[in-house]
Every structure is written in C-alpha cells, then in structure tokens.
Amino acid sequence: MASTKPFERLTGVCDIYVAPVGETVTAVNATPGGNWVKLGATDGAQSIQSMGKLTYFNDNDHQGPVKAVRPTEEQIVKFTLVGLTLEHYARIMDTVSDVVAAAGPPATKKVPLKRGSIPSEYALLFKGSAMSPYGAYPGQYVIPRGVVDNEPISTFARDGSPALECEFHALEDDTQVEADRLGWLIVQTT
Fold first, then answer.
1. What is the largest distance, in Å, between two alpha-carbon atoms of the chain?
2. What is the DSSP-derived secondary structure letter of residue 97?
3. Residue of 126, 128, 122 whose CA lies nearest to 144
4. Cβ distance 49 to 78 under 8 Å?
5. What is the DSSP letter of 29?
6. 85-141 residue pLDDT tens
7. Pick from 186, 19, 155: which is nearest to 80 by CA?
8. What pTM was computed for the model?
9. By three-state DSSP, how is residue 178 classified?
C-alpha cells in the first residue's frame, strides 16, 4: 500500500558559516553574503545542546520542592567539518591571521598550531537545506556571539577525507532581545 507520509526525515549535511559578531543574518532560504565565511559542510552527526539544569528548593512545610530556578544556561553546537581549506582550519584553531603563503616551488601555506589565551568571537550559522519539521524546507540555527571551545581533533580517514571535530559555545549577546541572546532556530514553513 502506497503512502504519502514519510517514515523518517533525512536532513543530510549542514553548512557552517562564521562572521564577525554583529553581522546581519541572512534569510533562512538565502545563501549568506556580506562577511559570512563558509567553513565547510558537516559530516556525521551534528548536535545542538541546550544546557541549564534546574536547581530545586524545599522548605520546612513541604516534603517536595516548592520552587525551581535555572541558575545557568548554555547553547553548544557540535559538528564535524569536512572539506576544509587551511584558512578555515585556522579559524577553528583561532590562528586565522597567521596563515602564511610561500610562492615556492613548491607553493605552500603554513599555519601555526599555538592558539593563544584569548579566543576570537564569531557569529555562527548552522544551516541546513531540509531542517524544517514542516517539509523539505531550509532552516538555520543562529548563534549571534560565541567561541570555539574545544580541543579540535583532526582526523584523516582511509578514503583520504580529512575532518575536524568542532564545538561552538554561545556567549550572551546583549544587542539581541532577551529571548535571542544565546541564539535562535528559524525554519521555513512553506
């Protein structure tokens, strides 16, 4: 028996873009322009983790908790990038201004591996062509301000495809409305 309803949604790969903090966010169905730089496509599982465990309070009159608060909150984006250039690798390593090209022969590019103590801040777009729960429409997570906060692991597979595991942590952006200060998800519906 034929059915028009899918059994599962395949979202495929997502594209990762970074820009200086404060850069205008493009429409959900548009290719980012301006100062947005495409770092590459993702491979394997990607995740957006919303952290913020509740703390519960009790009093002498009740056996159960009487109040709950969320004292801290975080957004963490985890992904594995593939198809990186050395300049994009340097952005993740936080050494982008240090890529040095030499004419050769052979022509080369070099990036130092020392990252320093103060990370660069970026805006991040985590953009997918089929992220919408309303159909095969695009969607994007927008993190208006954040930092790369992991110890990047470069992997080199037998098939010759290098990959870089990344973790991006949101920082509160006071230029946004209260609800959007750690970022937002936007999807197309039609």
1. 80
2. G
3. 122
4. yes
5. T
6. 888 888 888 776 667 778 878 888 888 888 878 888 999 999 998 888 898 899 999
7. 155
8. 0.82
9. helix
